[in-house]
Amino acid sequence: MANNDELKGKVNEAKGKVTDDESTELKGKIQQGFGKAKDKAKEAADDVAGKINKKIDKEKED
């Protein structure tokens, strides 16, 4: 699922293509990349938190 930054980036990229404005198109591509990077960072953080929670739960059982 696309986040807000990715959606804004797609809009800006399309706007740049329609208006033949390379700067706006590039800005859109950068926004999309930033949004994807944020998603990856969130996934990594969620993964680490899940592993920590499993470790804590396992230690509680012992």
TrEMBL record:
Residues 4-48 form the CsbD-like domain. Pfam families: CsbD. Residues 1-62 are annotated as: Disordered. Residues 1-28, 36-62 have a biased composition (Basic and acidic residues). It comes from the Bacteria. Belongs to the UPF0337 (CsbD) family. This is CsbD-like domain-containing protein. It comes from Enterococcus raffinosus ATCC 49464.
